Amino acid sequence: MPSPQPARRTVGLAPERVHGNVLNIGEVLTELSGDFPQITASKIRFLEEKGLISPQRTRAGYRKYAPHDVERLRFVLALQRDQYLPLKVIKDYVDAIDRGEKPESLPGGMTLSPRMVSDQMSRDLHSHTRSLTLETLTAEAGARHALVLDLVGFGLIAPVDGRFDEHALRVTRACVLLEGHGIEPRHLRPFRAAADRELGLVERVVTPVASRRDVASKARAAEMAREISELCLNLHTALVQGHISRMDS
Predict the structure, then answer these.
(1) Cβ distance 94 to 50 under 8 Å?
(2) C-alpha torsion sign, points 200, 203, 207, 211
(3) pLDDT tens, residue by residue, 42-58
(4) Cα separation of 232 and 169, whole Å?
(5) Is the pLDDT assigned to residue 112 strictly greater than 90?
(6) Which of 195, 207, 223, 221 is nearest to 89 (CA)?
(7) Has residue 104 got a pLDDT over 70?
(8) What is the pLDDT of residue 5?
(9) Confidence check: pLDDT of 19 > 50
């Protein structure tokens, strides 16, 4: 008879199961994988490193996740995925809630406490990531069909497999308002060029981190990219507003 095979272990998961109302990291992955198929133990540990969650530990040092830790993770991951918010913005928000404050709404209107996030809320957040046809994009943005075609032609928005995302919708809505001031898509080509240059700058900074093979490094690279992008936008806004403020001086 063949010798019995040793029991298989899942690499990276704690061998100790925590009983009661708390979960080990493997069980947390199971809880979250339905809504976040790409979630990994490294990603969860990275969020802990950034101070987004603070699980308790067993005497042996294994992490113990309470139900509110899991819902907090769900909230953070949903905002990062669907609202494209930097972790620093999310952390400031949840920290304010933990202090008993009532912070202002996040971009996108999110105001719920992470400890009260439900599966329904997660599904609602997921619905924000949509795929829009040309007709739907035009209707929701209140745009002329010709304007949308011009935006595509000048590279300000681009369909993927014939469909557009929420970013394209935001661009189109902004361009509809700019059109009311006589600013046409052809005038906005420098914005596309500036965005490409900014992306190149971000990529040069994060490539050394993103090129590492571990998942945690890729998560750090994505967060670095968001943070640098936000700082570039702040710089752009400050420069433009500085010039505008001198117009009436």
Answers:
(1) no
(2) negative
(3) 888 888 888 888 888 87
(4) 22
(5) no
(6) 223
(7) no
(8) 39
(9) no
Q: Is the pLDDT of residue 146 over 90?
A: yes
| pTM, to two decimals | 0.51
Decide if 60 contacts 15 (C-beta within 8 A). Answer: no
Cα 144 from Cα 149, distance rounded (Å): 9
Fold for domain 25-109+122-126? Multidrug-efflux Transporter Regulator; Chain: A; Domain 2 (1.10.1660)
Q: Which residue has the higher pLDDT, 114 or 97?
A: 97
Q: How far apart are CA 131 and CA 55, in angstroms?
A: 36
Q: What is the spatial distance between Cα 72 and Cα 50, in angstroms, rounded to a whole number? A: 14
Q: Interhelix angle for 166-179 vs 145-153, to 10°?
A: 110
- Give one DSSP letter per residue of 125-146, joined into a string: HHTTS--B-HHHHHHHHT--HH
